[in-house]
Amino acid sequence: MPKQRAYPVFLGIEEPYFDYGQAFAAILPVPFEATTTFGKGTARGPRAIFDASLQVELYDEELGGETYRRGVASLPVPKWGRGTLAQKLARIGEAARRPLEDGKFLVALGGEHSITAPLVDACAAVHGPLTVLQLDAHADLRDTYENTPHSHACVMRRVTERHRAVQVGIRNLSVEEARLVQAGGHHVFFAHEMIGDPGWMDRAIAALGETVYLTIDMDYFDPSLIPGVGTPEPGGFGWYETLRFLRRVISERRVVAMDVVELCPIPGHLVSEFTAAKLIYRLLGYVAASRTA
């Protein structure tokens, strides 16, 4: 684990709003990076998002309120220690169990996408069967990559071995992954099919079960909006269409936890981490609204 100075309080909020006991949400920074293969630096992502969150305006103009007043706790970085890659990932999953068992809406900030599999397992152990909604440029369905089944390029293969999944925004996959999808059993929404098709949101939401875990790889977005990712892919998605979709998901399904991963900060270029922080705050607002509707 890289050495970190203490993280600030997410959003820079004051007491009592960051108190764990009364918070409805908890933010877990997971600066884990072990298998990245192109642009590196995802271990710096959580800290960059926390720092950028201090500049997010706490009044939400879309929702007409201040979501932070529902309480947003900042958790410490989990200790994954020494051992195999599988053992380290398992410890990350263990760190997520307490806030989930305490009824918090968990938001994990990566780090690389490999952290999602143990987080989903922890969430399912607490909340029961669920569907994973993946927003991503990449399918991440390889069985192994660079001699490990726990690579960030394999995370959804591991997830789909144990859980249902709906994959949205996909625009890059290998022959192996394409054959797996063609064989059936995977709900994959390819970017080139989504563009110009207003019905894709209805079909994606219909494919979800009642309980949902949301994972957002930031390369889902077009690199003109989010350039700070390890593997940017052209043809991604914009801010408002994504929020329109996720607001529907959160209002029509029970979203119980989420992660935001694969942010790779670009020194001196703050748009990616600020957009990630604002996205998280907006989604917290949607979740809070869904729980009071």
Condensed summary:
With 293 residues, the protein is of the alpha/beta class. The protein is built from 9 helices and 8 strands.
Per the principal axes of the C-alpha atoms, what is the gross shape?
globular
Number of domains: 1
- What is the fourth-level CATH superfamily? Ureohydrolase domain
Structural class comes to: alpha/beta
Oligomer: single chain
Describe the structure.
With 293 residues, this protein is an alpha/beta fold. The protein has one domain: Arginase, Chain A. The protein has 9 helices and 8 strands. It has helices at residues 45-53, 85-101, 116-127, 155-160, 175-182, 191-194, 200-206, 239-252, 271-290; strands at residues 25-30, 72-74, 105-110, 131-135, 164-170, 187-190, 211-217, 254-261. It has an 8-stranded parallel beta sheet, sandwiched between helices. The protein is globular and about 50 Å long. The mean pLDDT is 96.
Q: Layout of SSEs?
A:
Layout: E1 25-30, H1 45-53, E2 72-74, H2 85-101, E3 105-110, H3 116-127, E4 131-135, H4 155-160, E5 164-170, H5 175-182, E6 187-190, H6 191-194, H7 200-206, E7 211-217, H8 239-252, E8 254-261, H9 271-290
Helix pairs in contact: 1-9, 2-3, 8-9
